[in-house]
Design goal:
The structure is a homodimer. Chain A has about 300 residues and is an alpha/beta fold. Chain A has two domains: about 160 residues, 2-keto-3-deoxy-galactonokinase, substrate binding domain (Nucleotidyltransferase, domain 5), CATH 3.30.420; about 120 residues, 2-Layer Sandwich (Nucleotidyltransferase, domain 5). Chain A contains eleven helices and 14 strands. In chain A, the strands form three sheets. Chain A has a six-stranded mixed beta sheet with strand order 3-2-1-4-7-6. In chain A, a hairpin with a 3-residue loop joins β1 and β2. Chain A starts with a helix and ends with a helix. The relative contact order of chain A is 0.13. The mean pLDDT of chain A is about 95.
């Protein structure tokens, strides 16, 4: 580990509700080492954050200098490590100047938590995605359009002149997971594959008449039973109905806009498949890279502040 | 227990996905004894149904005569005790003539499973609720209107001339439970009370624009956090949005109809509160009594068949 310690100049950290990702960073921006740990924030008291972090990074920390740790995500929430005041929209995504420096017992590092963003009307919150936006904007400073930040709680963000103008959150990903894994529909939607045509039809149905979402969920079960349909069909219907209902409600965001989907799993691919037939230009970017780019931008800003 | 055994002439049984209810019945229709057991149908093999039942009723069974057991619910499904073919709509709710007699090792009882109902287009299923409908119709043979059978999977059934003309199932109750207990919203909706005005507004919002359901779920979390709202408000918003979206989709059922809500818990009260401002006459009936009345009607039909 000596090599990492020697080259380590800062640590990037994304501390979400259920995971902690850490990158040991070199001066030139290279990732020396990447760590990922499951971590249920729900069960963590404020004074348990530091020991959790120390436990993971202690072997890499040098003794002769203080390593800055730049952290984004739910660790800055009310029930997190320290409550960091949200930055209100419209605003550029927060960077080092609005970060909160946390007092730590261990003096080998200095921890800075980046704020999330809030929107007062309609009320909305993000904590972690703003750093993905900052990362995207670092590489695309002139971008004017819409970012779709996929996940359990997908965010649609309208970006203009380097600022998050407004955003809206949809619980589609969490709903999809709950219904696929824990509802009656788990028997008829558990599938590693899905039927593309069925998905497209379901998206279309829900977009043109969002009310049917309520009545078509049980239909997935009934159709599987009466028509002996496969789970690949069931999964496609469920995903399609939920994403279609979201697209109907998010229309003011995507209509006529350039769209970039930031995500990396099947959900991101599903959004792309759903959006493409609508005739909008759709690009994708990997979420983890955007997070790291956002944290790196904050580190650079911190360095220029302190010099 | 001798007194019960002496008077016992038949057993009524409602075997649902998660519960088994049994009533020891006297000749005059009196309930001699009521039993209720939790029972996860998901984990039960077909040959485990009989021992489960025997275990609960053995002490009551006489040795000198065969006791008919009339059973409704998921025990008649594909993964149940025995697959009983569905009765297709339009039809009177099934009774004794369409029941399936199950072979049992124990000769002290004769088990009859009532069929559920199916609808081919749009595909839909019920298994258990049809017996509540039969019970309601036994007391209200001339009823022409709509029954709203509340539960995890609420059924709206159009009834005319003693028949189930059509029906539609909504997973609202299960969605409400999943979101209240297992999603991000559990922190802001867990509440034993709720705010009536907030509920009414949420129902109204979702009814007039069902698309907002997708965007307003996360708002419950964001508003609770930014505006410091109570869980009683959160619970009212969530229930109101989900029930409002259902009412929008179920409009062809309830519009201009006489409505009877069959249920017994808070959910039934919530539907009543949501429906009353719409100007329709709404009555309620307790679900368990309707089930027992339906099973009793089937027993009477069975008796007249065999005599």
């Amino acid at each position: 580990m000596t090599q990492i310690t020697e080259k380590l100049v800062w640590i990037a950290a994304d501390w979400g509700l259920s995971h902690l990702r850490l990158w040991m960073m070199a001066e030139n921006g290279d990732v020396l080492h990447r760590l990922s740990a499951d971590c249920d924030l729900d069960g963590l008291a404020p004074d348990q954050f530091e020991p959790t972090l120390v436990n993971l990074v202690t072997e890499f920390l040098p003794k002769d200098r203080i390593i800055p740790v730049i952290l984004c995500g739910m660790a800055g929430a009310k029930q997190g490590w320290a409550e960091v005041p949200y930055t209100a929209t419209p605003s550029a995504p927060p960077s080092a100047p609005s970060a909160t420096k946390v007092k730590t017992k261990d003096k080998r590092f200095a921890v800075y938590i980046l704020p999330g963003m809030k929107q007062n009307a309609p009320a909305d919150l993000m904590q972690g995605e703003e750093t993905q936006i900052a990362g995207f904007l670092a590489a695309n400073p002139k971008f004017d359009g819409v970012l779709c930040l996929c996940g359990p709680h997908t965010k649609w963000a309208h970006i203009s002149a380097g600022e998050v103008v407004s955003f809206r959150t949809f619980m589609t990903g969490e709903l999809l997971a709950l219904l696929s894994n824990q509802s009656l529909l788990r028997h008829t939607t558990a599938s590693s594959t899905w039927d593309t045509d069925t998905f497209a039809t379901a998206v279309d149905d829900a977009m043109s008449n969002p009310a049917i979402l309520a009545s078509k969920l049980f239909s997935i079960h009934a159709e599987a039973s009466l028509l002996d349909q496969s789970n690949a069909i069931g999964q496609a219907k469920l995903s399609g109905l939920l994403i279609g209902a979201e697209l109907a409600a998010a229309r003011p965001y995507w209509l006529g806009q350039e769209i970039v989907i930031i995500g990396e799993n099947d959900l991101s691919a599903a959004y792309k498949t759903a959006l493409e037939p609508l005739g909008m230009p759709v690009q994708t970017a990997p979420a983890e890279s955007m997070t790291l780019a956002g944290l790196s931008a904050a580190y650079i800003a911190l360095e220029s502040e302190t010099q």
